[in-house]
Amino acid sequence: MIGAGSRLHADDPAHPLSVDGGRGTGGEIVNIETAVVDLGRLLGVSEVARWLRVSPAWVRSHAGGHRRPILPSVKMGGALRFRRESVERFIADCERAPGSAAW
Known about the structure:
Blueprint: H1 32-39, H2 45-52, H3 56-63, E1 74-76, E2 79-81, H4 84-94
Antiparallel strand pairs: 1-2
Helix pairs in contact: 2-3
């Protein structure tokens, strides 16, 4: 059981964004978008990768400006962090109308 004030690491199976496929400890499906909104903090590379359903390397490459489109990020020490609003804007900017030319 998790006590008040406890913090869960994303690798912890009880964390809503854990690597267990979006399932909480009770086996229920967790809505990733809702879980991200509820966190109210900067997101890590693995959290953004799970949200976008891409690899962490893909996230780092786009955040580092090595690939386009650039994913806005914040570098804190050696760690990349992401604002939820920036990732949502990135997703919206990547949307294309049906039949439009690829990048």
